[in-house]
């Protein structure tokens, strides 16, 4: 399995990683409200990863922290 860390990927690869990982149900995520993310665009949720600013693990931790503390 290839690394998904920012340092090991290009922007285009990160976009594909997000698309592939969020498409587990076989449909498009746009305007969906069925998954654990609450719907919406994964490209927006993971924009900082795609842009090389934050790792996926950081974004996930921030997202879940809202449910634990808020």
* Number of domain modules: 1
Mean pLDDT: 80
DSSP, total strands = 0
Total count of helical runs of at least 4 residues: 4
Query: Strand fraction band?
Result: under 5%
Low-pLDDT ranges: none
- Compute the separation of the termini in Å: 35 Å
Structure explained in plain terms:
This is Quinolinate sythetase A. It comes from Catenisphaera adipataccumulans. The protein has helices at residues 11-22, 42-45, 47-50, 56-69. The chain is an all-alpha fold and 70 residues long. The chain has one domain (6-69). The mean pLDDT is 80.
Summarize the structure.
The protein has 70 residues and is mainly α. Helix content is 49%, strand content 0%.
What's the helix and strand layout?
Elements: H1 11-22, H2 42-45, H3 47-50, H4 56-69
Short descriptors:
70 residues, mainly alpha
